[in-house]
Amino acid sequence: MNPNINADPAELAKFSDLAHRWWDTESEFRPLHQINPLRLAWIDGLADIAGKQILDVGCGGGILADSMARKGAKVTGIDLSSKALGVAQLHALEAATPNVSYEEISAEELAKARPGAFDVVTCMEMLEHVPNPSSVVRACRALVKPGGWVFFSTINRSPKSFLFAIVGAEYILSMLPRGTHEYAKLIRPTELASYCREAGLELEHTRGMEYNPLTNRYWLSGDTSVNYMFATRRP
């Protein structure tokens, strides 16, 4: 891999090894399938995505990208995992999903080629897996049109998130493969807000996401101590 690319080979290998399971709703990706309707509804409620040109950064197997396309958006998904993109493309063909395409390219490289090309940019559950998350935030800002929305989701670096997102989800409940998240790479909301300000994005809305393992239910709330989402705009 090009050493200048903002990616961790170990992280790419981790998700590439699981690529064939992206669309198995009972697999390690079950949590992504369960939270996707919540993420999609929040994004659509703010950005009104039908007919919009949308870029999904770090799209993986295409769970969010596919659902946004089915809402009427014109979606481009990018990732650096060839295997995950292959799964996303195959699913789009099998499901006959309209207006979705996938490309193996980094956000930084695409920002050089297509600045200001998108009405909306999403970057969900990806920042905690790259060496330089602020670089991705800057690229997302460059890729969106003035006035456009940029959405991020990630995991807070807090004692509660260590207990819930790592110990609980990976080691006790086995909801995710062990080693999916590294505590040191998690990002506090204050840190992500700083990245956004430095990139020239204005933070408009913040939402937390909570989970009850007894009822197996997720919901959005004001609690950002574990999983959280940012809605930002380029002035």
Written account of the structure:
The chain has helices spanning 9-16, 30-47, 63-70, 82-95, 107-113, 133-143, 159-172, 189-199, and strands spanning 53-57, 74-79, 100-104, 118-124, 144-155, 202-212, 217-221, 227-233. The protein has an 8-stranded mixed beta sheet. It contains 8 helices and 8 strands, in the order ααβαβαβαβαβααβββ. Helix content is 39%, strand content 25%. α2 (30-47) crosses α3 and α5 runs parallel beside α6 (133-143). With 235 residues, the chain is an alpha/beta fold.
Strand order of the main beta sheet, please? 3-2-1-4-5-8-6-7
Ranges where pLDDT stays below 50 over 5 or more residues in a row are: none
Principal-axis shape? globular
Structural class: alpha/beta
Give the strand content.
15-25%
